[in-house]
Write a structure and sequence with these properties.
With 336 residues, the protein is an alpha/beta fold. It has twelve helices and 18 strands.
Length: 336
C-alpha cells in the first residue's frame, strides 16, 4: 500500500509498505480522507515534543470497512470515522471512563503510525459509523470534537459570555459548539481575516483585535464585567497567560492549548475571582457524537471550513504549500 512518510523534519516520502494485517478485535479500514491539522504541521516542522521519526502522520480519518471481526456491528463497505486515541483500558483514568486522559495513551499519527496510508487496522471500539455524514466531512469530526470537549469542560450555557482566544481550527471548533449552546461568543486574535470569518462564517457575536488595547476593549464591550468562560486556543504561552486578565468573578478558564513552558498567573487575582482553571485534552466518545449531531443539524459549516483539498499522491508538494501561512488554510484534506 501507499503511505506518506515523514522521514525527519521537512522531509516527506511517498513509500510502499505492506498492508497491515488485522489482529483479533481490530477492524481493517480502507482510508478515504485524512484531515491535516496543526499537529501534523508541527511534526513536519520538527516542533512536536512527543514524536520519533520516521512517522506516518494522520489522525483525522474517515474511510470504509475492509474487514471486521466475526460478529462485529460493522460490515465490509460501511462508511466510518476513526477515534485516534488508543487507550489502554485498565489505568485509573480508563477505569473512570476518561479514555482521553489515559496514562498510556497512544495517538495515531503521533505515538504510532497513523492514517496517511491506504489501510489502517485499529481496535473495533475506535471505529464508528458515520451515519449520514459524507466521508470528506467525517475527516473533520476529530478536530471539531476537540472544541466540543473544551466547551463541555467549561460547562458553557446560554447565559454565559464566552471569550475564545485564538481563531485557528481548534478555536473555530470552540466557537461553533459554544454558539450551539446559545452562548454569547467573542473572539480575540491578531488576524483580521480570521476575526471576520468567525463572525461571518461561524456566527460569533463580537471580536477583539489582540493588540495592547485588548483589555480596554474587552472592558468596554462587557461593561467592565469580563467573561464567564475564557477558552484559549492560541498554542502560545504568552497569550495563554494573558487570558487570565479577561476572567470575570466566578469564571472558568479552559486551556485547549498545550505548551512546553510553565504558565504563571497572579494568585491574589485568581483567588479573589474564585476562578476555575480547566485543562482540556483530546475528546471523549460523547464529544464525537455531539459533532455528528451538530453536523446533521446543519450547524457546522463544513464547506467553509474545508478550504483545501488534494490527493495523497501529491502530498509531498501539498504539505509544503499548505504549511505556509499565506496559503490561508483552515482545514486541508487529503483524499486517499
Amino acid at each position: 500500500m501507499k503511505a506518506l512518510l515523514c522521514n525527519e523534519p521537512g522531509s516527506l516520502s511517498l513509500v510502499m509498505r505492506p498492508e497491515p494485517v488485522r489482529r483479533d478485535g481490530e477492524v481493517l479500514v480502507r482510508i478515504r480522507h485524512v484531515g491535516i491539522c496543526g499537529t501534523d504541521f508541527h511534526i513536519f516542522a520538527g516542533k512536536h515534543p512527543f514524536l520519533e521519526y520516521p512517522r506516518v502522520m494522520g489522525h483525522e480519518l474517515s474511510g470504509t470497512v475492509e474487514e471486521a471481526p466475526a460478529g462485529s456491528r460493522l460490515n465490509k463497505g460501511d462508511p466510518v470515522y476513526i477515534v485516534p486515541y488508543l487507550s489502554c483500558g485498565h489505568c485509573q483514568a480508563c477505569r473512570r471512563g476518561l479514555t482521553n486522559a489515559c496514562r498510556n495513551i497512544s495517538v495515531l499519527g503521533v505515538h504510532c503510525d497513523g492514517g496517511m496510508a491506504e489501510y489502517l487496522s485499529v481496535p473495533e471500539q475506535n471505529v464508528v459509523p458515520t451515519g449520514g455524514i459524507p466521508l470528506i466531512d467525517a475527516a473533520m469530526i476529530e478536530f471539531l470534537a476537540i472544541g466540543a470537549h473544551g466547551v463541555k469542560r467549561g460547562g458553557i450555557a446560554a447565559s454565559d459570555r464566552v471569550l475564545v482566544t485564538g481563531s485557528g481550527p481548534i478555536g473555530m471548533s470552540a466557537i461553533i459548539f459554544a454558539k450551539a449552546r446559545g452562548a454569547h461568543v467573542t473572539v480575540m486574535d491578531t488576524r483580521e481575516d480570521r476575526l471576520a470569518f468567525a463572525v461571518d462564517g461561524l456566527g460569533a457575536d463580537a471580536t477583539i483585535f489582540a493588540d495592547t488595547g485588548a483589555e480596554a476593549e474587552a472592558a468596554r464591550q462587557t461593561g467592565d464585567e469580563w467573561y464567564d468562560v475564557v477558552i484559549d486556543a492560541t498554542g502560545n504561552a504568552v497569550p495563554m497567560q494573558r487570558g487570565f486578565n479577561f476572567l470575570a468573578h466566578g469564571a472558568r478558564y479552559v486551556l485547549l492549548s498545550v505548551v512546553r513552558q510553565d504558565i504563571t498567573f497572579s494568585d491574589p487575582e485568581f483567588h479573589k475571582r474564585e476562578a476555575t482553571l480547566i485543562a482540556s485534552r483530546n475528546a471523549q466518545p460523547d464529544d464525537f457524537a455531539e459533532v455528528v449531531r451538530q453536523m446533521e443539524a446543519g450547524r457546522v459549516p463544513t464547506r467553509a471550513l474545508n478550504t483545501h483539498q488534494g490527493r495523497l499522491d501529491d502530498g509531498i508538494r501539498l504539505f509544503s504549500e499548505w504549511s505556509r501561512p499565506e496559503a490561508g488554510v483552515i482545514k486541508a484534506i487529503l483524499e486517499v
